[in-house]
Give the backbone structure.
Amino acid sequence: MFKFDDLKIFIATAEAGSFVGAAHHLNIAPSVVSRSIKNLEIQLNTTLFNRTTRKITLTGEGRWLLDHAAKTLDNLNEIHTHFADKNAELQGRLTIDAPTPFTLHMLAPILSRFTRQYPKIKLSLESNENIADLIEKKVDVAIRLGELKSSGLKAKRIGSIQRAFYASPNYLEQQGVPVAVEDLQNHNCLGFSQQTPSLNRWPILTERGEWFEITPDLTANSGETLKQLAIYGHGILCLSDFTVRKELQSGELVPILGDKVIPHTIPVSAVYYSEHKVVRHIRVFLDFLAEHAVF
């Protein structure tokens, strides 16, 4: 009879898409992964992966086993968690990857509550503008803004955000307050550089019924940089609402064209490698985030 460790290695291989990726994630040698998969195929008398020199893909039997093996390990994990000592103090390192604005404005204000409640869980924050490979970067939880692409990763939706338009009072005093999308053509629009061109499509309709795509007068690859430029009167910008709360309270920025913003929702998700491998300290962080993150 095959071992449960073989199932764990099989699932890691299917999700990583390679023996090397699974070995890296499980911190074992690739030869161990290869041998385990071969033994599993022999014991089940089937082929689980189609192998080429460049990649591996699941066979039909492999897909069936992946579904059932994941459920089996989920049940075992649930049994273990149920009978575990609930008073045991959680500990371990938790690596979180998130876009810089989310780290600054959503995580930083609330993490002290988490560390007070779980002092032996050591947090490591990775702020990236680009999507990180969870396996390669050894990330436990990653925050994703926007619709998720299909993958082997699991996700927990923790909230949603919207984008809106802002400018400094000084800029508006000098240049006037826009009241329609056409007015934006006579204003300085602050936009993102080429790495994130989709963010230069603003949620306000043109006469043709399309989102307004700006030609930026000044660009940056960071929303925080654009915000500072707007504060100093360089123009109008479009940012996620959660990034400007303090500036709105202080009066450094004011909202404009609020009645023209197209209603839209940008989902925010916490993504993690695989549900059946999520240990307790990751689970409590996901629950904490869903409860305490202010959207």
